[in-house]
Amino acid sequence: MSTLLKSLYLSTTQYGAQKGMLTGQAEFANEFGEVKLNIRPEHASRILEIVAEALVATTRETAALMTSQVIEQASSALLVAE
């Protein structure tokens, strides 16, 4: 029996006591059923810290790929011009 994360949802609350705070829900399921949890702002912040690390890594990888493509194009253009 394994319990799996079915969905994870985070958003900025638009109204009420938690207006402007990050909150959400997580839904887990196994063969016996499903459970949905509310995610409080302090837990949402911890999740966002992990996501931010992944965002930084992905941004660096994307920048490296884009830079290498520009360099390759520039090198090819120089070779053609010669």
Description:
There is one protein chain. The protein contains one helix and three strands. It has 82 residues and is of the alpha+beta class. A hairpin with a 2-residue loop joins strand 2 and strand 3.
Tell me the total number of β-strands.
3
**What is the residue-mean pLDDT, rounded to a whole number?**
89
Q: Helix-strand pattern, N to C?
A: EEEH
Principal-axes geometry comes out as elongated
Structural class: alpha+beta
Specify Rg, calculated over alpha carbons.
22 Å
Q: Give the CA-CA distance, first to last residue.
A: 66 Å
Q: How much strand content do the residues show?
A: 25-35%
Largest sheet: 3 strands, antiparallel
Helices, by number, come to 1
**Which range best describes the helical content: under 10%, 10-25%, 25-40%, 40-55%, 55-70% or over 70%?**
40-55%
As residue ranges, the low-confidence spans are none
The neighbouring-strand order within the major sheet is 1-2-3
